[in-house]
Amino acid sequence: MNTVELAPHRIAGLLAPAVDRTFRAGMLAGRDGGGAELSQRYGGVAASGFLVDLRTRLAAPGGTVDGPAFAAITRYHDPVACQRTVDKQVAHGMLHRSPGGALSATERGAAFLSELYQVHAEVTEELWAGHDERVSRLVAALGRLLAYALVLADEERDRGGSAFAAMAPPYEPDGTPSGVLLLNRLGTLRYHRADAHAAAWAAAGHTASSIAALPTGPERLAIELETDRRAAGPYAALSAEERLTMLADLAALPG
After folding, report:
1. Rounded-to-integer distance, Cα 175 and Cα 170, Å
2. For 110-158, how does the pLDDT look when each residue is reduced to its tens digit (9 = 90+)?
3. Considering all CA atoms of the chain, what is the largest pairwise distance in Å, rounded to the nearest integer?
4. Mean local confidence (pLDDT), 212-226
5. Please, are residues 158 and 199 in contact by the beta-carbon 8 Å criterion?
6. CA 70 to CA 214: how far, in whole Å?
């Protein structure tokens, strides 16, 4: 019998690279499996880039991402360059920007996102074929994690200007295939950790540019450990056995 138990902060650190690997595999498969060609039909990356990034919010009817949330999501990028990119996507008729700066999908943008969800359904079905039970377990576990993370965020009243607040819960219309649920729930969980990491480096006196330049060493390690602590809360929703199962299931998925 396996008696190993991982505390929430330890599993948060161990799961982060597994979550990244699985999410990136799904997104790469989407790009190579029709996503790039779909993007070209709508004007290329210049027209659709941020729609892909913000798909789980902007695909929802009435879904918007406000200015502070967009700044949090793009915190590691030059804000002037980001706004220029948004300008181009507005000009392509893919994004609408309100006078207050909130972004939403136009009718054309919504059509693109609908097709993108279909591409992701097809490629994840192929990528994770034969792993239906693992995918189902992961979808259920991630659903509980995200729901608890939202409760914690509400209790802390710390949702304004956070990437996770902007993207959670992901848009999941009726009939969304399990592979798409897994891909988008993993992506949303990554935003939770991104906010935790930003809070950790900010508390250590860093900026987005200085943390990107910080070399491996004791200071970076301390920030990563603090990130694990800040990202740990949602994992209390899972038992020790469920945490280990989640880690094993992610490790077993192709990609």
Report:
1. 14
2. 999 999 999 999 999 999 999 999 999 999 999 999 999 999 887 655 4
3. 60
4. 96
5. no
6. 24
- At which residue do the structure tokens 């941020």 appear? 50
Residue closest to 167 by CA, chosen among 27, 72, 231: 72
Sequential DSSP letters for 22-90: HHHHHHHHHIIIIIHHHHHHTT-HHHHHHHHHTHHHHTSTT--B-HHHHHHHTTTS-HHHHHHHHHHHH
Alpha-carbon torsion angle 203, 204, 206, 210, nearest 10:
-150
SS3 234: helix
Cross-strand bridge partners of residue 105: 95
Percent of the chain with pLDDT over 70: 95
Backbone φ, ψ for residue 96 (5° rounding): -115, 135
- Nearby residues of 2 by Cβ (< 8 Å), 6 or more positions away: 241, 244
H-helix segments, 168-239: 178-203, 208-213, 218-231
Taking CA atoms, 190 is separated from 109, 113, 146, 203, 231, in Å, by: 24, 20, 11, 20, 10
How far is Cα 226 from Cα 101, in angstroms, rounded to an integer?
33
Give the Cα separation of 187 and 20 in Å (integer): 8
SS3 state of residue 108: helix
pLDDT at 156: 58
Helix axes 132-156, 178-203, angle to 10 degrees: 40
- Other beta carbons less than 10 A from residue 196's beta carbon: 21
Three-state DSSP at 117 gives helix
